[in-house]
């Protein structure tokens, strides 16, 4: 007997099926403070939850109640020395010579420190990673069709070091869990920054395809620095058994809704038809929105959510994760709206933000869920020729994967040409906050709101990207060795799971 879903049918999806959606929220994450000069404010997830609650979306979802990830679970994706460092590190036990080797710095006024030592660091990582792990298990068990963890999506973290505000890569943890239930997993990243950590981990794994849509090249004030992390060229296509399963779509600053859709839809349609994933992980980094403090794209909330809507329409198990996003009111608006898309209620929630305790943060956007997008420099850098080149190069790489699979190179896939009706074919369903004050006495979210115009954060964090490139060049092969060892561990663990 086929089970009915918890969520309502969505008119935006051609199959019109109900979706069983599960949702993870941990209020403990909201109390984490990255420091006085940092743009990362985890309480943006509490703001999102406040909107989700006030728009009455919670009854349409199953709430995931889970424990934090265990040390043994995190050991599967972390080197031993880095795991021990994260577990034991506090501002009081910080030692520069040890922590800096793993790209973690002291919590201070040093504006060049993007991965600070923060109170409760291990607990924080375990909580957001535990949410992604539980969400992946909900999909793998068949109990849910869509799973959401807005506190996850830390796509820059590596096996042995922190990067880009990310300490533990919960996405890698979730994909590994999904692979225990699904033969092929597709990872899609719409953060303004390249999903480098996830790509590196699965670069040689034929069961996983990664597709990252990101800003690339020179960026920042004056356009004279590399946009973080400086990776994600279209020429990077994977290696070994994973060749052509790495897909990068590098874009210039100013990308707007129309331009993004012009690339995303045809490229992802071909990816879905060729790779035929059994599950999808979508990292919904909100720093690709217009007006973000770090990103330089011009996407609206609706334009960003169009990616969620499009991938939802394929009726494949879907995991939605957070990621970047540093204009916190925009982030909360976006992730709330995308929650509504997941449950099929995006046309039912009003634009006027309900009273719920956080509404004062939305004053600058007129207390509306959908704020105005700046028209200055909208996609001006991307000519028609440039857009055609980006799309054609991506489609060429997908075609190369097509040829590999067609001739039996890679994971076992029965290949045949498909049409739209088959892509949208229905799949059978399986039954089955209190504010914390920072060190200076000021709430971290209030502090960031106040300081939004006082620092050139875009230029500062763009410089981090250039430093990252120089650091990688000075130590060639280091990351490759780390991830080769990690892939070996992953393969061993997967064999153990399937044999037992």
From TrEMBL:
Which top-rank group of organisms is this from?
Eukaryota
Q: Which cofactor does it need?
A: Zn(2+)
- Listed binding positions for a divalent metal cation are 191, 193, 287
> What residues bind substrate, as annotated?
114, 164, 326
> Where would I find the Histone deacetylase domain in this sequence?
38-340
Annotated Gene Ontology cellular component terms: nucleus
Reactions performed catalytically = N(6)-acetyl-L-lysyl-[histone] + H2O = L-lysyl-[histone] + acetate
Q: Which residues form the active site?
A: 156
Main subcellular localisation: nucleus
Q: What is its EC number?
A: 3.5.1.98
The molecular function GO annotations come to: histone deacetylase activity, hydrolytic mechanism; metal ion binding
Q: Where along the chain is composition biased (Basic and acidic residues)?
A: 478-488
Under the heading CDD domains, the entry gives: HDAC_classI (cd09991)
UniProt-annotated location(s) = Nucleus
Biological process (GO) annotations? epigenetic regulation of gene expression
Q: What are the alphabetically sorted keywords of the record?
A: Chromatin regulator, Hydrolase, Metal-binding, Nucleus, Transcription, Transcription regulation
Where does the record place the region Disordered?
417-447, 470-500
Task: Write down the PANTHER family for this protein, in alphabetical order.
Answer: HISTONE DEACETYLASE, HISTONE DEACETYLASE HDAC1-RELATED
Q: Which family does the entry's similarity section mention? A: Belongs to the histone deacetylase family. HD Type 1 subfamily.
Q: What is this protein called?
A: Histone deacetylase
């Amino acid at each position: 007997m086929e089970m009915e879903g918890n969520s309502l049918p969505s008119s935006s999806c051609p199959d019109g099926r109900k979706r069983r959606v599960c949702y993870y929220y941990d209020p403990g994450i909201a109390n984490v403070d990255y420091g006085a000069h940092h743009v990362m404010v985890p309480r943006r997830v509490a703001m999102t939850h406040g909107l989700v609650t006030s728009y009455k979306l919670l009854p349409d979802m199953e709430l995931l109640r889970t424990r934090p990830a265990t040390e043994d679970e995190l050991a599967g994706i972390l080197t031993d020395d880095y795991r021990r460092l994260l577990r034991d590190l506090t501002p009081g036990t910080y030692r520069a010579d040890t922590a800096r080797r793993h790209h973690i710095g002291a919590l201070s006024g040093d504006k060049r420190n993007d991965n600070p030592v923060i109170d409760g660091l291990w607990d924080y990582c375990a909580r957001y990673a535990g949410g992604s792990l539980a969400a992946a298990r909900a999909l793998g068990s068949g109990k849910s069709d869509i799973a959401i963890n807005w506190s996850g999506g830390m796509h820059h973290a590596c096996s042995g070091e922190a990067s880009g505000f990310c300490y533990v890569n919960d996405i890698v943890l979730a994909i590994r869990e999904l692979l225990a239930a699904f033969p092929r997993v597709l990872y899609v990243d719409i953060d303004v920054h390249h999903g480098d950590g996830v790509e590196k981990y699965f670069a040689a794994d034929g069961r996983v395809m990664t597709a990252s849509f990101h800003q690339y090249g020179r960026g920042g004030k004056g356009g004279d620095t590399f946009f973080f992390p400086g990776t994600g060229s279209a020429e990077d296509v994977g290696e070994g058994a994973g060749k052509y399963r790495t897909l990068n779509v590098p874009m210039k600053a100013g990308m707007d809704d129309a331009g993004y859709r012009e690339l995303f839809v045809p490229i992802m349609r071909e990816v879905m038809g060729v790779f035929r994933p059994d599950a999808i992980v979508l990292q919904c980094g909100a720093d690709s929105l217009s007006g973000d403090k770090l990103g330089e794209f011009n996407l609206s909330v609706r334009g960003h959510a169009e990616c969620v809507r499009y991938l939802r329409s394929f009726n494949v198990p879907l995991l939605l994760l957070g990621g970047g996003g540093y204009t916190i009111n925009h982030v909360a608006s976006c992730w709330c709206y995308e929650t509504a898309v997941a449950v099929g209620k995006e046309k039912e929630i009003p634009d006027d933000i309900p009273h719920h305790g956080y509404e004062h943060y939305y004053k600058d956007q007129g207390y509306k869920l959908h704020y105005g997008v700046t028209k200055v420099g909208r996609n001006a850098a991307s000519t028609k020729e440039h857009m055609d080149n980006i799309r054609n190069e991506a489609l060429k790489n997908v075609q190369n994967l097509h040829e590999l699979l067609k001739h039996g190179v890679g994971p076992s896939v029965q290949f045949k040409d498909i049409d739209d009706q088959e892509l949208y074919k229905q799949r059978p369903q399986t039954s089955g906050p209190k504010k914390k004050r920072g060190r200076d006495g000021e709430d971290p979210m209030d502090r960031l709101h106040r300081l939004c115009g006082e620092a050139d954060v875009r230029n500062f964090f763009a410089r981090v990207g250039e430093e990252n490139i120089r650091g990688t060049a000075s130590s060639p092969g280091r990351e490759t060795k780390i991830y080769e060892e990690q892939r070996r561990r992953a393969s061993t663990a997967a064999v153990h799971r399937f044999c037992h």
